[in-house]
Structure formats: structure tokens, C-alpha cells
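Input record, target 12 of the design panel.
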């Protein structure tokens, strides 16, 4: 009986063409990160379970893969990367000169219901900025996220910026309890504003403030913040700071499509100030592809408090958005494909391959099935080879190689020594 092994639910295999696309996007992202002065780091795939429960509470146990190892240590596959990076920072980088700009790529794991763009194993790209919360620092961080998406060709993306400190002040103005705030957040997050309005009226709150709050959520006008928070002096500086960040993005980072959205409610427990999301409307309901902002976690992990901010970018949703915009990817090509015409030409074929690979650093393959010329050329074409090299007894007698341009079909013979010194001779 043949046993057929199925791939675990919520995971995927990536064939060569798909991996080429993913590595291309990753390389573009890495280049943009580095252009902003960020440096790459890596953390373990699994961590102490307490690292994630300390950040997200015991409820996170339902969403993660957790287990005990042979030493009875309680561990978890990382569901995200911010907590591991903060742990690493507290352990090893607190004395480093500030600001610290760190970026990463890594697989994460969540026990979630699989759906389009959401998997149980997924690649996350992200970064953390440690040491500055100046308006220009936050604006630059947000600009970085937009540059990453624009550089891979996405044009239909929307940037929304909010502020959780101001949202908390609005909740204070409405005299909401902690429990009431928690009840409202899911509806605000889903932009179910009619539901929010109904609940607020059920709680018999000041009707004029309810109208202003719902209008702020729907129309996203910053002047309404002043009206709602006119009795809170501490709100003035934060509103001006938010306006300064938006002004920097529009007028100095050349990001014109910035929208205010006070309904961004990312993790109120540790996000502290400016927050933002980038959305790709073509993806429908699950359109968010990037999100982040200012947060406090260092103290939770035993470190000295320091301004921190960052974002995470959904790699899979980014690729889906690229597909929706019908963006093309560079084709993966093979520089040379070598065809030994007879069996006794095989050793020399590998000699030429070694020169191409080791001396000139070209990609190169040799026919390994001892096929006829026609079938070997057909295979070379399927691998998108640029040049085929034919090596036969007649060529070797004349000390030459036959080069075939796979795009045009043009062929010519060149001396072996000349080709070894200059493979670009074709």
C-alpha cells in the first residue's frame, strides 16, 4: 500500500518559479531597507512561551503553536517578530548608539483559519526604529513602508495615519470605561460605524459628542479633533505633532495620498501614539498589507524605556496585490547551457562549466541526460537559457566551441581560449 503524505493545512510548497518571484520581492525590499540605513537581524524561529504571553496575554495561546521540549521548557513558534526583536535588543543591544534601525525577514506561525492571503506559516518582513520619536523619524518610517511597495511596482495603495493617544483622549471625553472601550474596538476596526453609533446611544452618552466622534471616524477631518478635545490641554501638542507628521509625508516625502484615520486601533495595550496602515483596495475585505506605529514594549521585557516604532509587512498579501495589478517579474534565466554532442565530450563540457562558474560567476548548466541536440536545445529553451554551447569532436579538433544565441538562433564558432578569457564574446 502506497502512503500519500499531504502537506499540513495552512502551509504551502513553493515551486522554482514562485520562489524566484518571492526572492525578487525580498531582494527589492532588502535594498530599500538598506537605502534608509537599516541593518538586517535574525532571531530564533521559536522562543520561550512567556515572551508572547507577556506581550499579548494568555489569550494568545489559542492562536499559536506552543509545545514543551525534552527539557520540559515551554516554547512557542514565533507568531510575529516584534517581541523577539525587543527581547534581543534588551539582551544585547541596549548600549548600542541610537537610533537603531533594524530590519528582518522571517517565517512566522499562527494557528489561524486558512484563507486567501492568510496562512498558518507565512513570511513576515518588518523593521524597528529604536531611540527616536521625533516627527521626522516617524514620517521617515512611514515613508519607508510606502517606498518599499512603490519600488516593487504597486501603485494602487492607500496610506492612512491615526493616533492612539488621541483616540484614548476621545474615549476619556466620552467617559468610556475600559470594558466599553474594548467592546467598541472591534466595530471601529471593521469600520462598522453605524454599529458604533448605536452602541454609544445605548450607553446614553452626550449625543453631540457621539455625532462629532462618528463624523470624525467617517469623514476623517483633523479639525474635529480640536472640537472633541477642546477641554484637554495635553491634546494640543499631540494634534500638532500628528499634523506635522502628515505635513512632512505630503510635502517633503512626496506622499500625496495620506488620509487621517482615527479608527486605526492597533493593539491599544502597547501602541502609544502615531499608528498607520497601508491598504491595497484591490484585495477586497482583507486589504491591509502593512501596519505599524509607535509602541512601548522594552520596559515589559526588562529594558530601560526607549522610544520605539516599527511596522510589519504582509509578504503574501503584497504578492497578491502585485498579481491584482498584473505586475510582471524579471524572468529567471540561465546564462549558458552546455551540450556535449558525444559521450567523450562530457569531461570537457564540465571543464568549460567550471570556468564559467568559478572564474566568471555565470550561471551554467550541462546536459545530464546525454540527449540528442534537438531535445537538449528544447530543454535549454525551457530553462530560458541565453546561450547554448555545443561541444563535439569536430569542434574540439579545431579548438573551437559552437555558441548558439537562444533568442535569435544565430550561431558562431569561437576559439576555446578566447571564450575562456571572454565568455561575453557572443
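The sequence produced for target 12 reads:
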Amino acid at each position: 500500500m502506497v502512503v500519500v503524505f499531504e502537506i499540513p493545512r495552512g502551509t504551502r510548497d513553493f515551486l522554482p518559479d514562485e520562489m524566484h518571484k518571492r526572492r525578487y520581492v525580498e531582494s527589492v525590499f532588502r535594498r530599500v531597507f538598506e537605502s534608509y540605513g537599516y541593518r538586517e537581524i535574525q532571531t530564533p524561529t521559536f522562543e520561550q512561551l512567556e515572551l508572547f504571553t507577556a506581550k499579548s496575554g494568555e489569550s494568545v495561546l489559542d492562536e499559536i503553536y506552543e509545545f514543551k521540549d525534552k527539557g520540559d521548557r515551554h516554547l512557542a513558534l514565533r507568531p510575529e517578530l516584534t517581541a523577539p526583536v525587543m527581547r534581543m535588543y534588551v539582551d544585547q543591544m541596549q548600549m548600542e548608539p541610537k537610533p537603531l534601525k533594524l530590519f528582518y525577514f522571517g517565517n512566522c506561525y499562527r494557528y489561524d483559519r486558512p484563507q486567501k492571503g492568510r496562512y498558518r506559516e507565512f513570511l513576515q518582513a518588518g523593521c524597528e526604529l529604536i531611540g527616536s520619536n521625533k516627527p521626522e523619524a516617524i514620517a521617515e518610517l512611514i515613508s519607508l513602508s510606502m517606498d518599499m511597495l512603490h519600488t516593487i511596482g504597486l501603485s494602487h495603495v492607500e496610506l492612512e495615519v491615526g493616533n492612539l493617544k488621541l483616540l484614548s483622549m476621545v474615549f476619556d471625553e466620552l467617559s468610556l470605561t475600559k470594558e466599553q472601550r474594548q467592546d467598541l474596538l472591534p466595530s471601529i476596526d471593521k469600520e462598522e460605524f453605524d454599529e458604533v453609533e448605536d452602541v454609544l446611544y445605548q450607553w446614553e452618552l452626550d449625543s453631540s459628542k457621539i455625532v462629532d466622534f462618528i463624523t470624525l471616524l467617517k469623514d476623517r477631518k483633523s479639525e474635529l479633533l480640536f472640537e472633541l478635545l477642546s477641554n484637554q490641554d495635553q491634546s494640543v501638542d499631540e494634534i500638532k505633532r500628528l499634523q506635522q507628521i502628515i505635513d512632512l509625508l505630503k510635502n517633503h516625502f512626496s506622499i500625496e495620498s495620506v488620509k487621517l484615520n482615527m479608527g486605526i486601533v492597533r493593539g491599544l495595550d502597547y501602541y502609544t501614539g502615531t499608528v498607520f496602515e497601508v491598504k491595497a483596495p484591490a484585495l477586497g475585505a482583507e486589504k491591509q498589507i502593512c501596519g505599524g506605529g509607535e509602541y512601548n514594549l522594552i520596559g515589559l521585557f526588562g529594558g530601560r524605556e526607549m522610544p520605539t516604532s516599527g511596522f510589519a509587512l504582509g509578504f503574501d498579501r503584497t504578492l497578491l496585490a502585485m498579481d491584482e495589478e498584473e505586475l510582471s517579474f524579471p524572468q529567471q534565466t540561465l546564462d549558458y547551457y552546455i551540450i556535449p554532442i558525444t559521450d567523450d565530450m562530457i569531461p570537457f563540457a564540465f571543464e568549460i562549466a567550471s570556468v564559467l562558474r568559478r572564474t566568471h560567476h555565470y550561471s551554467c548548466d550541462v546536459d545530464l541526460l546525454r540527449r540528442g541536440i534537438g531535445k537538449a536545445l528544447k530543454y535549454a529553451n525551457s530553462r530560458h537559457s541565453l546561450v547554448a554551447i555545443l561541444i563535439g569532436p569536430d569542434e574540439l579538433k579545431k579548438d573551437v566551441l559552437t555558441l548558439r544565441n537562444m533568442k535569435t538562433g544565430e550561431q558562431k564558432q569561437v576559439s576555446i581560449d578566447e571564450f575562456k578569457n571572454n565568455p561575453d564574446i557572443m
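Residues 16-324 form a domain with the BirA Bifunctional Protein; domain 2 fold (CATH 3.30.930.10).
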